[in-house]
User: Fold this.
Amino acid sequence: MRRKLIALAVLIGLAAVGSAQQGPPVDPLLTLLIKKGVITAQEAQELQGEYRAMKRQAAEKQQETASAVARTEARKVVAEAAPSTLKLPTFLNGFKIGVEAYISFQDGKRYKGVPGETSDYSQFTLKRGYLNITKKISPHFEARLTPDVHQDSTGDWKARFKYVYGKFKWQGSGVLGKPYIEFGLAHMPWLDFEEHINRFRMQDPMFMERSGLFNSADVGIMFGANLGGELPESYRKNVNGHYAGRYGSFQVGIYNGAGYHAKERNTNKVVEARLSLRPLSTVAPGLQLSLFGVTGKGNTAAEPDWNLFSTMLSWESPRLVLTGQYVTGTGNQNGSAIDAAGRSLDRDGYSAFTEIRLGAKRDISLIGRYDHFDPDTHSLTNDQQDRWIAGIAWQFLKGNYWLLDYQNVQHDNPLIPNEGRIQLTLQVKY
Assistant:
């Protein structure tokens, strides 16, 4: 064994020298050692095999080391090149573009003014198309521009602005969380709040807008904030992350009063305000009591009174949403709710909504809604109407839905027949 080790050491040493000097191969040395009786022929073969294995392993290790060095150098090159080749232009920092569209197929019957008769309709239609463009200009100031594509009475597709405003915002304190001011063609206090509880604006407008009382935006100034800090992240993620003040939220604004798609026809300004409270924020954060009010004049030169008060009780949880609301008031936003003498009409109504979310991912929703509205509480005619809505929705991607719904409108006036419609809607949102 000792002779074998000595021969292997000699072999490796001479091989290294021979390799450095480009000398002859080592096999003749083994032959000489055999002749001198230092090792046997079998030992020479074993030594030759061990030497070749060691040489092969050394070459493989050298190759692995070279590859690792090459990979490291490649990463350095990419890292050094990335800032100059992949970095966005400065003006695009904080810039976001989003789309929201409602595309529907509708089939139903509607009343068109002939007593006792309805007409059939069947159509594919684009109910709404928003392009939301926002830019964070600084940590405390951002801007929003939202064109709104709609179809006019002639069937032509036209674009108009829904929102154009600058928004100032702050972190706030323990009392007022994340306060903000919108100045321009801005949100009105109610509909954006309700639409983040009832997610199915794609079906058609919310109750008060559908009753012709007001729409969702107007030119003016609006101030809002959360009450207290934010609710826990688990609630914001699994239930609702909007208007998620621990004790509620509020908004108050002063506006022209015409809405976002009408010309201002007087100099009156309208005041609107919403207050939402969470009375059991610790044990039942999904329970809210919301109050909403409007005072001003309808948008005509005659300036009829427009006053409104509404209250809504809502419950939100990961699998169940419930709302119930009541509204009373006089007149409406566009000033058309008046009698023959020009006095604003007294009106009231109520609505209930529910959503049940099914499936492991809560991606299947069953929805139901009931609206009752009386456009003139002092009228001796039967002018009230009731609307029933039922549907099933599938959220196949976050914010993107298929909704199949049926609605039926019943009129107290015996000369107006019931109206019905089945509708399939795709909401596209990103």
Remarks:
- DSSP finds six helices and 16 strands in the chain.
- The chain has two domains: 2-85, 90-429.
